[in-house]
Amino acid sequence: MKKTLLLFATVLLSLGACTNPSNDQKQETVVSTNDNGQAAIENIMTRTSIRQYKDQPVEEEKIDIMLKAAMAAPTAVNLQPWHFIVITDKKVMEQLAGNQPSNAPLMIAVCGDTDKTSMPDGKGKLPDFWVQDVSAAIENLLLAAHAQGLGAVWTGVYPAMERVANVANVLNCPQNIIPVAVVRIGYPDESPAPKNKFKEENISYNKFGGKKE
Asked: Which of 51, 98, 156, 168 could form a disulfide with 173 if both were Cys (CB 3.0 to 4.6 A apart)?
């Protein structure tokens, strides 16, 4: 709840920036913004995959926030080539889970919409940048879930075409709607420690293999 309030505080601070505050108010705003920035970093660093959930539904307000966060993701040429299918029907969720049973009370299928990949000037279509756009939306969704005290896990679909076909069939997706992932969401019933994935060997400077000066 604290993290959610901090996120709302950031929005309020942004709105406040439209006024003309005094020097004292400006200093106070800088400090508050830095605090919220730290909260955002903490949210990223402490998020981890959750696969076991309490028998508790996810509130509509929290679903709306996750969807708004997902659609705030960066998108090439602002094409927004995504579509979200919110799933609460247990039968549908069982079909999607397949041989990976889940007790998640909510699933959101995040899909690419290939009808939304045409260039604004009408000169052809972008390459498969929609995959990057949708992936960014999924990450935003995961972070918004964590910020609201929820747990979630990204279960991949695309580019495993057999999975794509199965999920599309269950969800009655038209040809232009391509499932990229099904995100399972709920209140955590486990507390796995976040993994430290930072490794110096995965970093180069200026060119591949370049060392930090």
From this structure: 168
